[in-house]
Specification:
With 111 residues, the chain is an alpha+beta fold. The chain is 56% helix and 14% strand. It has a three-stranded antiparallel β-sheet with strand order 1-3-2, sandwiched between helices. The N and C termini lie far apart (36 Å).
Length: 111
């Protein structure tokens, strides 16, 4: 799997996909998921237009990362807000408020 395959998986998942660290590591051509490698994966995903949760990619290859497209679709927009809320300061405060107003709407649509 390379970044193209990650992109296909995310598109097939309607804007997001659960991908193992091992798969991400292989997509970026690394042998082990060391600290510098997971930082490179994170930067590569961001450069490719993707965000991810958890916000720090784990080093254990059996862990799963939720990769999502940063393109404004409903699911990706919600995940981007979650990511912003993870920060500190006014952006996090605004994101927390916006998430609190969006979640009831998302729950209603799911019924």
């Amino acid at each position: 799997m390379d970044l193209t395959e990650i992109e296909k998986a995310v598109e097939a998942g309607n804007g997001y996909a659960a991908i193992t660290v091992k798969t991400l590591r292989n997509a970026f051509g690394a042998q082990r998921a060391k600290s510098n490698v997971v930082q490179q994966i994170s930067a590569g995903l961001r450069a490719g237009g993707f965000g991810h949760v958890p916000f720090q990619i784990p080093k254990r290859q059996d862990r799963t990362v939720l990769v999502y497209r940063l393109d404004g679709r409903r699911a990706s927009a919600l995940l981007a807000l979650v990511e912003a809320a993870h920060g500190d300061g006014e952006q996090a405060n605004g994101s927390a408020w916006l998430l609190s107003t969006m979640l009831p709407v998302v729950n209603e649509e799911g019924k």
